[in-house]
Amino acid sequence: MRSFDFAPLHRATIGFDQIADMMDRVLTNDVAQPTYPPYNIEKTDADTYRISIAVAGFSETDLSVEVKENALIVAGKKASEDKERSYLHRGIATRAFERRFALADHVRVTGASHEDGMLNIDLKREVPEALKPRRIEISSAKAIEKDVVDAKAVN
């Protein structure tokens, strides 16, 4: 039994539905995750990341990279070969694939490059100014008292 009940989490929090849904999706996924093509995710700076996918045998025209609803979707489909080849051993897989990566809020794809059989996708987290922490100045109680005007009863 590997299912968890996230109902208490939904009752005790506001605005964290996305996290609970993601954990529920990950923990209830009994289907084996695909391992093709292999990939690396690296943190290149404080707010920048790079996904490197091994796509040997694919050209730029065989690959597609798109962002849709906070998900990065990388797909590859090899064009059919015109002539039949006779392989003694075929170890380089060129089968079609689709890889999905969930993107956090405020993470955007800044570019993609294909070089030496590797597809490199660069990402950057850009937090809007309104969401960045800001310092609030603390004033003393005496300064607040100076601004109060004495109110006297008219009647």
From TrEMBL:
Keyword Lipid biosynthesis: no
Keyword annotations: Stress response
Ranges of residues in domain SHSP: 30-141
Family stated for the protein in its record: Belongs to the small heat shock protein (HSP20) family.
Species: Ruegeria profundi
Top-rank taxon: Bacteria
Keyword Signal: no
One Pfam family linked to the record: HSP20
UniProt cross-references to SUPFAM superfamilies, sorted A to Z: HSP20-like chaperones (SSF49764)
InterPro entries, sorted: A-crystallin/Hsp20_dom, ACD_IbpA/B, HSP20-like_chaperone
UniProt protein name: Heat-shock protein
